[in-house]
């Protein structure tokens, strides 16, 4: 791919620029990424919490914040909900959520069951040796499916925190069957437009083994459960150096990629803003998506799974959506047919240059033009600052945020 500015200097270049611009605008028009309700409230690490005065203190404020991010970016019309945190009354809370959807103009996105907080889950939820506790976990999953159906939300997104801390203390094999049984029963309850996404994670909170540690285990469990079960890739849930884009390529190829939880990390499941540590990795993942067929990528859900304790929550969320849009635009710049030719003829350096020169292009001017054409804020972060929304929220919510301090940042 030629430099965008250089391309515009020649007659051929003008044509090429128009084609590239069209491709990028189309990609941006289609790009949607869901924000997590838990990214707007005060959370912390296991060592403590630094309270932000402007953080959302209830579900209405989470909807308000999510709506604001959508107004600024034009890319996040849905918000992921966490059942126990956002619908503590379960199904009874559905009408209240529907009222918030109508009021704020954002819809409920994926429904996240919570199988990790209850004391009874000390030795696991769906992989617990106790049939009674597994039954309780199944009931919660079935409630989550019903909540999803009532809200018209497509995905029930499952992170299973089960595992053990010491070798020999649990039968990893028996636990496979127990999980299969519960996931199969959950699948049987899904409505025609619903899916269940199975997330994997090789570490934390368990320290020796986690029951769904990698994409192979998630895939096998999803397949056993049924055709509406797919794999969810959380970018922070891999060992250092894992080739995540290769996992993505495989899952796309198999038609088993349900979606992503996007975040960045330096060490473990750090939940940092997307692309803050390794934007090239995000670009490589997006390339796999962009280069897949429309069919293959049609049902891949993009979600953010981040929760910030130092950065302002609204700023971090807007920054993440904007970074995602920019990195997706970069992936859309790649001339796919040229790349395929170069790969086929093993012209390695040219292929690599074709690929990485797209990454090195500054797409911000094109993205700005697109925002302007779509009536969006040209610079969403600056617009957030100018709107005074965060200061307003800090005044409104400050007293409700325990120990609220002088500033939100
Ligand atoms: C815990 O690792 C986690 O970050 C998982 O990624 C879940 O998706 C998320 O929490 C919400 O439950
Ligand atoms: Mn996740
Ligand atoms: Mn995580």
TrEMBL record:
InterPro entries documented for this protein: L-rhamnose_isomerase, Xyl_isomerase-like_sf, Xyl_isomerase-like_TIM-brl
One function term, GO molecular function aspect: L-rhamnose isomerase activity
GO biological process terms, semicolon-separated: L-lyxose metabolic process; rhamnose catabolic process
Pfam families reported in the protein's UniProt record: AP_endonuc_2
Keyword terms, alphabetized: Isomerase, Manganese, Metal-binding
Manganese is among the record's keywords: yes
Keyword Cell cycle among UniProt keywords: no
Residue ranges of domain Xylose isomerase-like TIM barrel in the record: 95-285
Top EC category: isomerase
EC number(s) recorded for this UniProt protein: 5.3.1.-, 5.3.1.14
Family annotation (PANTHER family): L-RHAMNOSE ISOMERASE (PTHR30268)
Protein name as catalogued: L-rhamnose isomerase/sugar isomerase
């Amino acid at each position: 791919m030629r430099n965008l500015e250089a391309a515009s200097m020649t007659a051929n270049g003008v044509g090429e620029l128009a084609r590239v611009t069209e491709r990028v605008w189309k990609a941006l028009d289609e790009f949607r990424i869901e924000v997590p309700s838990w990214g707007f409230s005060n959370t912390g690490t296991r060592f403590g919490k630094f309270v932000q005065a402007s953080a959302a203190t209830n579900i209405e404020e989470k909807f308000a914040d999510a709506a604001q991010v959508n107004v600024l970016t034009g890319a996040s019309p849905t918000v992921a909900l966490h059942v126990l945190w956002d619908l503590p009354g379960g199904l009874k809370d559905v009408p209240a959520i529907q009222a918030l959807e109508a009021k704020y103009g954002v819809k409920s996105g994926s429904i996240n069951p919570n199988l990790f907080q209850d004391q009874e889950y000390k030795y696991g939820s769906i992989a617990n040796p106790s049939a009674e506790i597994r039954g309780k976990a199944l009931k919660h999953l079935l409630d989550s499916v019903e909540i999803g159906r009532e809200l018209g939300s497509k995905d029930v997104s499952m992170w299973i925190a089960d595992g053990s801390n010491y070798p020999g203390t649990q039968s990893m094999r028996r636990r496979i069957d127990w999980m299969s049984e519960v996931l199969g029963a959950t699948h049987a309850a899904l409505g025609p437009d619903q899916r269940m996404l199975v997330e994997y994670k090789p570490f934390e909170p368990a320290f020796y083994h986690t029951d769904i540690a990698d994409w192979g285990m998630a895939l096998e469990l999803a397949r056993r459960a049924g055709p509406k079960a797919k794999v969810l890739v959380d970018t922070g849930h891999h060992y250092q150096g894992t080739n995540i884009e290769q996992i993505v390529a495989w899952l796309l190829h198999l038609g088993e990629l349900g979606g992503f939880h996007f975040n960045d990390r330096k060490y473990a499941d750090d939940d940092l803003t997307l692309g803050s540590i390794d934007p090239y990795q995000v670009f490589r993942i997006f390339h796999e998506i962009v280069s897949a067929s429309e069919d293959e990528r049609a049902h891949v859900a993009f979600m953010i799974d981040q929760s910030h304790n130092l950065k302002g929550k609204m700023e971090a969320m807007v920054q993440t959506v904007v970074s995602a849009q920019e990195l997706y635009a970069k992936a859309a710049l790649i001339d796919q047919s040229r790349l395929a030719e170069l790969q086929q003829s093993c012209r390695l350096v040219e292929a690599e240059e074709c690929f990485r020169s797209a990454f090195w292009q500054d797409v911000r001017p094109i993205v700005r033009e697109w925002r302007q054409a779509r009536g969006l804020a040209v610079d969403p972060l600056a617009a957030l600052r100018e709107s005074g929304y965060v200061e307003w929220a800090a005044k409104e919510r400050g007293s409700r945020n325990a120990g609220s301090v002088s500033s939100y940042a």
